[in-house]
Design brief:
single chain, 954 residues, 5-stranded parallel sheet, 3-stranded mixed sheet
């Protein structure tokens, strides 16, 4: 296609094909209105391609999961007969969509199927660069849409280009293709070419090619006016006018006759129908029957229904095309025009005959169902729709299965075959859940629940309530989830299934524990104990022991809690119960953490992670590994904590809980080290996740980190509001262990702002926490708070005494950063009380600890307090400390860069001025922003003025 208006589009397609051949593969979409010439454009671009081209297309009338991809693979199989049989270890999984390969494995799933397809395309492309052209994606099924998203990722670095063409005027809101494009856009992987109609010049050129002579001016204007440059319309109209004898040729041009008065067709449909007038009656009959059969059809099927006689006529006239034993319409718009023009009585007759013949041939149930529906035979369509849904489930096309079941249920006569209808609803819920439609799953299962309740079907009711609880948990509707679990437990108990009832009670208790509703969780465990004993279930016994131990430790009964958790773990290991043992390891480590025994907590978390790796237990191993990080942050092993967090965040398949714990702890380390620019997104994401999923310990950690970040960034009001919100949340919960550090820090923050009432509120909560937990860390936190209250009252001696008591309590607890913060406040109190020597000694200790941890803000604060006491910082702490104090931690070069930034120079201009590379300047600017805790150059300039850094450069 050498038309001027198509050269740009051809060039774009050829560039994409060439890029894919070089290893930059993926998905490329070609969009345009029906009849605009997308397919012709793609085929023209492919004509000069030296690689392999595989073709497939979506079905117009019938949902066939993976149909375009299956057609492409079968095309490869025809070209290379043994090409699919030796395509690697996952070949057998392809039998799900290619039955000719044999029986698929029993344990296959959608992810494995998608991986198998991706691997196959990669292997095909190793022989030669490959283009997979999938046409008519406006009829895309949901399963293929999911597969294409996976292929775009899998083939990103492979010499495979998946070209998809679709009619943009047939993609309504909610269409699968819209979701596909949105996800590609989110990934920044959307590559799309929109094919526009031809202009007047190319419209004339295309008509000349069809007619064999150049159109005259009147004909050219009429063609463009009627067709608006749509290539298919141009071709059809030109052929129709010529066939009707309405054109005459003179002097090498073809023109409308001088006496031409008949109106020209205004639409593609009218143009197509004008051409069908030349068909014989048998040809028209064949064409109508083919239109009822679909865009593509088996020729043998048409022949069986008496449509063979007119086949040659329809092919010669250019309406149908024969490819091997199949027939298809030359263009979908031809089929639509013929189908719409067929009287509805004849249409229904065709569809009824087609349905009967397809059923006789044991054709795919989805094809039979569509014919029965089009014939108006709703009762006969319903079983075929349900059979289609079963087939779709087998190939993991759950969205399409749910749609088929939904259509069947809509056709269900009221009060008829109620058992079958409820079974269909239950399957609908499962399919909806598996493709992510949680609302649809809930709606379906709730209807079945009501029916089971009315019938007294306790076993089925309990199972459905259990499933609904899982759905509610995924939606973050935790109150509804707990209610559903309680209902499931009640139904199980009434039905004599004590084991299942106890399991539901323990599942609810586990969530209440995470949400810090500890007493309610203990009540549920106590209620399940008798059932656990009667059933003799070792697995549930392990869970009950370890969960109770974790909860009791958090409530302050640390000795008994740790003992119970150990007992649960020992029982699981003795009975070789891998997954219960993994959970018991986790709960024991959590109990030790609540008891402030951080060294042993680290050992148990590490042992839990190793155990899960050895046993191949996915999920829990990553959670235990991530939980090392908060303990390492406590014990001052910040570099190791950062390594753990980054390792978890780099895992693509780590559980969300593990990822959010890692994000929170990494954010906290960044804050404590003064790197506030890198922390807000990490902590905000963790906080949102924690609140949505009721993970209260994580919520405290993230909210605490954000408040600290706000203080460092100069957003004091935001920090105060965040701290007050956190304190209110802590007051409403029973969980206290994670709250100690947060409450201790808030007392200091409020005290520095002169907010004595807020200090008192934090101190009151710490008093309750110390009474409940009784750990040295909790009591030390109370001592710190009392010291802040004494300082606020002006009693420096009493403050020093309280801070010193807190430090004595922390002497045997491995929390170096928290101890250093209390040392700093103790030094300030001692200085105010007149004990300058001891104050200097404590400040020196704080500085050394902060330097070792990399906690720049705390180190700077210690140096500033020493300077305030008249101490020579350089003599006491060294030249480096003095320089950092004077220059806010900036190096000489960074100060030079900051000065030039402050006068508006760009990085390139600064590089030229300092004879450095732009990349080096980029690094210095990032360091300046990080050390000053700023997010922009303007903010850094303002902060530099406040600190007097610019004057020092003058």
């Amino acid at each position: 296609m050498d038309l001027v208006d198509r050269q740009r589009e051809q060039a774009a397609l050829r560039d994409a094909i060439a890029s894919a051949a070089g290893g930059d593969g993926g998905l490329f979409l070609v969009a345009g209105e029906g009849g605009v010439g997308k397919t012709a454009l793609v085929e023209s671009a492919l004509a000069g391609n030296s690689g392999l081209v595989l073709r497939g297309a979506a079905d117009q009338r019938v949902v066939r999961p993976y149909a375009p991809v299956v057609a492409a693979l079968r095309g490869y199989q025809r070209a290379v007969p043994d090409g699919l049989t030796g395509s690697g270890p996952l070949t057998q999984h392809l039998a799900l969509i290619l039955p000719e390969l044999g029986s698929p494995p029993a344990d296959t799933d959608q992810a494995t199927l998608f991986e198998a397809v991706g691997n196959l395309f990669e292997q095909i492309a190793r022989g030669q660069p490959t283009v997979v052209f999938l046409d008519d994606l406006q009829w895309l099924d949901a399963a293929t849409a999911e597969l294409l998203l996976q292929l775009d990722r899998a083939l990103e670095a492979a010499p495979v280009l998946v070209l998809g063409a679709y009619r943009s005027d047939e993609v309504p809101r909610g269409h699968q293709l819209r979701r596909l494009r949105s996800e590609l856009r989110r990934r920044r992987r959307l590559q799309e070419l929109t094919v526009e109609p031809l202009g007047p010049v190319d419209t004339t050129a295309l008509a000349a090619r069809v007619l064999g002579a150049r159109p005259g001016d009147r004909l050219a204007r009429a063609l463009y006016d009627r067709t608006q440059g749509m290539p298919f319309f141009i071709e059809e109209l030109a052929v129709a006018l010529a066939a009707a004898g309405r054109l005459e040729t003179a002097a090498g041009t073809v023109e409308l006759g001088p006496e031409e008065t008949l109106p020209l067709p205004d639409t593609i449909k009218e143009t197509v129908l004008l051409r069908t007038e030349r068909l014989s009656p048998t040809g028209r009959h064949t064409l109508e029957m083919a239109a009822a059969a679909g865009l593509r059809f088996e020729l043998e099927l048409l022949a069986a229904l008496g449509g063979a006689d007119g086949l040659d006529d329809t092919i010669q006239q250019g309406f149908l095309v024969q490819v091997d034993q199949q027939g298809r319409f030359r263009h979908a718009l031809i089929r639509e025009a013929v189908y719409d023009d067929t009287p509805w009585t004849r249409r229904r007759s065709y569809h009824r005959r087609l349905a009967e013949e397809l059923a006789r041939r044991s054709a795919a149930p989805e094809a039979v169902a569509e014919q029965w529906l089009a014939a108006g035979e709703r009762d006969r369509a319903r079983p075929s729709l349900l059979a289609a849904a079963e087939r779709f489930c087998q190939v993991h096309a759950y969205h399409d299965a749910a749609r088929a079941i939904g259509r069947a249920i809509e056709l269900w006569p009221e009060g008829e075959d109620e058992d079958d209808r409820l079974a269909a609803l239950e399957l609908l819920g499962r399919c909806a859940q598996l493709h992510g439609d949680l609302t649809g799953a809930t709606r379906a299962w709730q209807e079945v629940v009501e029916a089971c309740r009315a019938r007294g079907d306790l076993s089925r009711l309990a199972e459905l309530q259990r499933r609904l609880a899982g759905i509610y948990e995924l939606q973050g509707a935790w109150d509804r989830a707990l209610t559903a679990r309680a209902a499931a437990a009640e139904a199980f108990a009434e039905g004599g299934q004590e084991l299942e009832a106890a399991a539901e009670h323990l599942a609810a208790a586990s969530h209440l524990q995470a949400a810090a509703n500890l007493s309610s969780a203990l009540d549920l465990i106590a209620g399940a104990d008798s059932a656990v004993e009667r059933t003799g279930s070792i697995q549930l016994r392990v869970r009950a022991l370890s969960l109770e131990g974790q909860i009791r430790a958090k409530l302050g009964d640390t000795h008994r809690g740790v003992e119970l958790a150990r007992k649960g773990l020992a029982l699981a290991l003795a009975e070789n119960l891998s997954e219960p043992a993994a959970e018991a390891y986790y709960r024991l480590a959590s109990a030790l953490q609540a008891a402030a025994d951080y060294p042993e907590a680290l050992d148990v978390y590490a042992a839990a992670s190793d155990f899960c790796d050895q046993q191949g237990i996915a999920g829990m191993g990553e959670v235990c590994f991530a939980c090392l990080a908060p303990v390492m942050v406590k014990t001052g092993e910040w570099d190791r904590a950062v390594e753990v967090c980054r390792a978890i965040l780099d895992l693509g398949d780590a559980p969300a809980t593990a990822r959010m714990v890692a994000a929170a702890e990494l954010g906290i380390v960044y804050v404590l080290r003064g790197e506030t620019r890198r922390t807000r997104r990490l902590l905000s994401d963790s906080l949102a996740f924690a609140r949505r999923n009721q993970r209260f310990g994580l919520e405290v950690e993230a909210a605490h980190g954000l408040a600290r970040a706000d203080i460092l960034g100069g957003r004091v009001d935001d920090a105060l509001q965040g701290a007050r919100d956190l304190i209110s949340r802590i007051a409403d919960r029973e969980e206290r262990h994670y709250s100690v550090s947060a409450l201790r820090w808030t007392t200091t923050m409020f005290a520095r702002q002169g907010l004595k009432a807020d200090v008192a509120r934090s101190a009151e909560l710490l008093s309750q926490t110390a009474a409940a937990l009784g750990t040295a860390e909790a009591v030390a936190g109370l001592g710190h708070a009392l010291g802040e209250l004494a300082l606020a009252d002006g009693d420096a001696a009493a403050a020093a005494q309280q801070f010193t008591r807190a430090l004595d309590l922390l002497s045997d607890v491995s929390v170096p950063y928290e101890r250093a913060e209390t040392e700093l406040r103790a030094a300030i109190a001692l200085a105010a009380a007149g004990d300058r020597g001891l104050a200097i000694e404590r400040l020196t200790f704080v500085y050394r600890t902060a330097r070792r941890l990399g906690a720049r803000p705390l180190a700077r604060e210690a140096a500033e307090e020493l300077a305030r006491l008249g101490e020579q910082v350089e003599r006491r702490l060294g030249r480096r400390a003095a320089g950092e104090l004077e220059h806010a931690g900036l190096s000489r070069r960074e100060l030079e860069v900051l000065r030039l930034v402050s006068v508006g120079r760009t990085n390139r201009e600064i590089a030229q001025a300092l004879f450095l590379s732009p990349r080096t300047i980029d690094m210095h600017v990032r360091n300046v922003l990080t050390k000053l805790g700023c997010r922009s150059r303007t903010e850094a300039t303002r902060r530099a003025v406040e600190l007097g850094l610019l004057e020092s450069q003058l």
